[in-house]
Amino acid sequence: MSPIIPLLPPHLVQLGFDYILAVEAGDDATAARLAPEVEQLPGLLPAIAELIVFPVTALSDHTDPCPDSFVLDEVGVIYLMAIREWATHAPAAAAPGIARTIAHFVSQVFADAPKDVLQALQALRDEQVERARAVVENVVALHR
To answer: The pTM is what?
Structure first.
């Protein structure tokens, strides 16, 4: 995990992914219900994007760097910067577009078939919520 990825509490990880899932599924009622909270947190969807994109595009410590790996790293950085700028300048209007952009990335990188995007997003959500819970548990354990 990247040191630049902000630590999100489990409920915010859940909220961000649930919003993305609702937008991707075309569940307008759920997306509309979650939108006010998502829009009040303009950094939430960019943080979710970082959780998904950075591990895929960042230079790995486990492989020898090559020109392609540096290009992939830079493309990931530019992609995430664009999402952050989009969210900063128009948080309410940007949320559905950012959600669709994240879902598109997942469909291209993680889903075996276009119709598997929701399953891939759900698996990523479950994994990231568990990671966030583990971080919280570790912090609580350290303070005992």
So the answer is: 0.85
Q: Is 26 left (phi over 0), alpha (psi -120 to 50) or beta?
A: left
Q: Enter the tokens of residue 118.
A: 């929701």
Query: In this predicted model, what pLDDT tens digit does every residue of 6-15 receive, in sequence order?
Result: 578 999 999 9
Q: Which candidate, 76, 30, 26, places its Cα nearest to that of 51?
A: 76
> What's the pLDDT tens digit per position in 73-108?
888 889 999 999 999 988 788 999 999 999 999 999
Both tokens of 16, joined, read 């961000």
> What are the Cα distances from residue 39, in Å, to 87, 92, 110, 136?
9, 5, 26, 24
